[in-house]
């Protein structure tokens, strides 16, 4: 019997892909920050650790921006590499963003040492006030290539040889 989460993901991708409009790069390196995408974007909460995914794109079918899981070997815009748990308390976007940048930065440096050496960059994906009210305390850390798409998983192998 197939894994229910895998079936759900395949159904979602099958429904969304036909309506997703491609977005052309507008010259120059891309920069993504903590406002680029958030937990309120459809499909994001389905992305798990180490999985690759698209940038948010408008879907005619869904009538809103969506993120689509993409197998890393197929090329993707982003890859999740760490989840950080924010402490309970009242919603404070600035404090959550500060935590996300600090912890995602530490995780990035542990994996890739530096932006200059790796050619990669990172950004935190934050909960929203609405998802926070529902108990969401997860900050997703995503890595991307500012000069284009990831060609495969960019996570270093555990043996240090590369992916």
Describe this structure in words.
This is Septum formation-related domain-containing protein. It comes from Jiangella aurantiaca. The protein has 163 residues and is α+β, with helices and mostly antiparallel strands. It has one domain. It is built from 4 helices and 7 strands. The strands form 2 sheets. A 5-stranded antiparallel beta sheet has the order 4-1-5-7-6, with helices on one face. A hairpin with a 4-residue loop joins β2 and β3. The longest helix has 20 residues, at 93-112. The relative contact order is 0.19. Residues 1-27 have low confidence and may be disordered.
Radius of gyration over all CA atoms, rounded: 16 Å
Shape field: globular
Strand content: 15-25%
Order of helices and strands: HEEEEEHHEHE
Distance between the termini: 30 Å
- Widest sheet: strand ordering: 4-1-5-7-6
Number of helices: 4
Runs with pLDDT <50, length 5+? 1-27
* Oligomeric form: single chain
Structural class: alpha+beta
Task: Give the proportion of residues in helices.
Answer: 25-40%
Q: How many domain regions?
A: 1
The profile of the biggest β sheet is: 5 strands, antiparallel
| Overall pLDDT metric | 85
**Number of beta-strand segments:** 7
What can be said about this structure in brief?
This is Septum formation-related domain-containing protein. By secondary structure, the chain is of the alpha+beta class.
């Amino acid at each position: 019997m197939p894994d229910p989460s895998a079936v759900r993901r395949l159904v979602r991708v099958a429904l969304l892909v036909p309506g997703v409009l491609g977005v052309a790069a507008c010259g120059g390196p891309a920069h993504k920050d903590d406002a680029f995408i958030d937990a309120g974007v459809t499909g994001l909460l389905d992305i798990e650790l180490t999985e690759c995914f698209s940038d948010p794109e408008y879907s005619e079918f869904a009538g809103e921006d969506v993120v689509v899981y993409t197998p890393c070997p197929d090329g993707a815009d982003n890859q999740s590499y760490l989840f950080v748990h924010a402490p309970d308390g009242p919603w404070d976007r600035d404090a959550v963003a500060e935590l996300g940048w600090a912890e995602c930065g530490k995780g990035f440096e542990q994996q890739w040492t530096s932006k200059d050496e790796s050619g990669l960059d990172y950004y935190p994906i934050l909960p929203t006030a609405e998802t926070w009210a529902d108990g969401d305390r997860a900050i997703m850390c995503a890595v991307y290539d500012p000069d284009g798409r990831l060609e495969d998983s960019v996570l270093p192998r555990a043996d240090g040889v590369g992916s």
